[in-house]
Design brief:
homodimer, FAD/NAD(P)-binding domain, five-stranded parallel β-sheet
């Protein structure tokens, strides 16, 4: 019986395990899970900390019992300590510090990422947290309950920073976001980030841009004093450091598996690493970008699921290939949804592509029907060829912003021109769209302006 | 100066006019409009009659003044009486019965469709209406205001029947729908139509299926008695006959322009008719179906806008081709949205394609986040090849149903397989989707079941 061993019980690992079992009911699948929370939705943590999700167990994409019912063995609270590719073994340590050596025919690494902890003096003081795993989540929840802080400062204005700003505002804390860049949410253009900042401000969140945090000091009253560039000082009762993630690949590197960008594991389109019989997927690997035709580091849950499914399929003899990422992302910030896909002008410039962007303010549905809301669609295309490069949308929650970015994503996947977007037979009814969908109206506007 | 004459001031005609002027500021464009309502949103009429749209003028996609500001001459309340292709002239009659002959270099026919009026005795009695144009709308509105009927019967359970059932319920009338078929909304599968019927029933609309209306008689109390097959009788105070549309092409036919299916004008992919210098677009033409590789009669506003834009472009020397329809449609019925695209099993069978469909009940977003709603997605694919053929979705208003059908539509446009749907980099955030979007979850379920 073939033995498939998987290190990592989050999205990539569990997706791989399930896909392998789905295709080959004879394969023996074991997943080594560092904590007690296999396949938990990391993206859901802010909604648990906000109080919107009642029980932490609700965050599981799939329950452990369901995973086990699919014939998958979960080794919870086991840490993989060493991979020996020559003997095809992995050494694991359990909570009693007992070491066990497991043999594999095929190994999949889904070790994920860890929070980046920047070089800030005092970052280890009590009341300062990073946030990525369930352990972090419970630490934060306990602190919120025990210490009842009235204020929190988020260092970092990315996706998790945005979601946590909303979550902790909702929980009644006074929230400050400190971000080094000129706006928040730097995955969209700066001026669009400014709109997100305005939404935060409108909801009472203080946003400070252009400040690099240098030190955090503990005050006599138990509060924390943050010091940053440009003489920035700020007193707060709690700090979350949410400045991004880096691949967790020390295990892979020590096993001689080639790594690349930011230390992420190098994989080919079949999700094979440079070492025979070892696949890797998810936040620990370099990800192929379909438009840039290059590897990037782009850790996303959607990508982890896709890559995990492919690794799982190929591990049992399949022939799937990862088609590449477009960097499609969406986030809800209070009443707004911000979504993006593909390349923007800055990305295009960096890639040497002559791009042009056009903005269109457009109603989500016929304005005569109640509840119409304007959204901003920024379309980016290649000037010379008219090829669609990317899109960014900011609109209201409920205005089908996120699935409209997906129409762009589907078009990008197929290398469509902006003109050809007009050929798509998209749905229309007055309460939900226009005879030309906003996607197409923004395409026509790009064509007029370019 | 080139003279472009357009007969018909609805979606196709106005789209053609605007596109021609956009590309060629020197072209002289005249649009012959039978009524006083150029470019009104026919699809919006139910929302005017429901009372949700305050002023009828709000229904205009574009205001007459804006159209004229684009350099387009509108001949309102002019009826085109005759087309003479040999002399390139059109004779029009104004409200004073004055005849004028207009010359053209290029003519575009956008004459649209008329309501089908079935062979029912008594169908001309007062209180019985068809509904397609603004004139019909005002007749109905006047009747509702003057006669204050407490009940209405809709003959026909298609899109307009569904929308009017909701609209007139909202207005306080007791509504009955009489439909010949076994369910309503026969553009989706019968069992899905039954779900729509249940939604109508839940909102107090009485739905009668399997009855062909044969006669309507006027009672002594001014009420109308409807008689149908299977000994059906029903007394009502008002009747709307909404059983579909047929192309309005007598003008074209008398000019020797070849017509085909249901009398619709034959066009090629450039929207040229069989007569030189004459294009046609919209509800008066046969429409190319991208999946069936055949012409159909499929009158839709989305299609009219597309075909009009292409006809307008080509009329001033462009080289655009219509890429074909997928039959994408959506409709809101009370709290539900029903959307469809492509081929279903019945269509596939008729086309000799070996199809298989799988149903998936799936949450619109992560169930741990408040407000999650289940939607039903039925995916249809070709068994032998795994090629996507079509999809139907029923879900709640606000659950991004309509733009999810558009992801399927974009995939169909490119001939994707159902397996390849998993490669699409679609957006995810817990309040709006899952790491695998419902579209992909339903694809995976199809693959498992097939």
């Amino acid at each position: 019986m073939k033995r498939l061993l998987i290190i990592g019980g989050s999205d990539a690992g569990i997706s791989a395990a399930l896909r392998a079992r789905e295709l080959d009911p004879d394969v023996q699948v074991t997943v080594i899970v560092a904590d007690r929370y296999p396949n938990y939705s990391i993206c859901g943590i802010p909604y648990y900390l906000s109080g919107e999700v009642q029980a932490a167990t609700d965050l599981a994409h799939r329950k452990a019992a369901d995973i086990e019912a699919a014939g998958i063995q979960l080794l919870l609270e086991h840490k993989a300590e060493q991979v020996d590719a020559s003997s095809r073994t992995v050494t694991v340590r359990d909570t009693k510090q007992q070491l066990t050596t497991l043999e594999y025919d095929t190994l999949i690494l889904g070790t994920g990422a860890v929070s980046v902890c920047p070089d800030i003096s005092g970052v280890d003081l009590p009341g300062i947290f990073t946030l990525r795993w369930m352990g972090d989540t419970f630490d934060i929840e306990r602190y919120l309950k025990d210490k009842k802080p009235r204020s929190v400062t988020l260092i970092g204005g990315g996706y998790i920073g945005m979601e946590m700003a909303e979550a902790l505002s909702r929980r009644g804390l006074s929230v400050t976001v400190v971000e080094y860049a000129d706006s928040v949410l730097t995955t969209v253009d700066t001026d669009l980030g400014q709109r997100v900042k305005a939404e935060l401000t409108r909801h009472g969140v203080q946003v400070v841009n252009g400040v690099g945090v240098q030190a955090i000091e503990s005050g006599s009253d138990g509060r924390l004093e943050i010091k940053g560039s440009n003489s920035f000082t700020h007193v707060t009762e709690m700090v979350l450091v949410v400045v991004g993630a880096r691949p967790m690949t020390n295990l892979a590197a020590s096993a001689g598996i080639p790594t690349g960008l930011r230390g992420a594991i190098k994989v080919n389109s079949s999700m094979e690493t440079g070492v025979p019989h070892i696949y890797a997927a998810g936040d620990c690997v370099e990800t192929w970008h379909r438009l840039l035709n290059a590897y990037t580091y782009l850790p996303l849950g959607t990508t982890s699921h896709k890559q995990g499914r492919i690794a799982g399929e190929n591990a049992v003899g399949g022939k799937q290939e990862y088609a590449g990422s477009l960097g499609t992302q969406s986030v809800k910030v209070f009443d707004l949804v911000i979504a993006r896909t593909g390349l923007h002008d800055a990305d295009a410039k960096q890639a040497g592509i002559d791009s042009f962007s056009a903005d269109t303010e457009v109603w989500d549905h016929k304005v005569y029907y109640p509840g119409a809301r304007k959204m901003l669609i920024r379309v980016t295309g290649e000037q010379r060829t008219g090829r669609l490069l990317g899109a960014q949308i900011i609109g209201h929650y409920g205005a089908e912003v996120s699935k409209r970015i997906d129409i762009f994503a589907a078009a990008l996947f197929h290398g469509m021109t902006i003109e050809a977007l007009n050929d798509l037979d998209l749905s229309y009814t007055p309460p939900l769209s226009s005879p030309w969908d906003p996607v197409q109206i923004s395409a026509q506007n790009w064509l007029q302006q370019c």
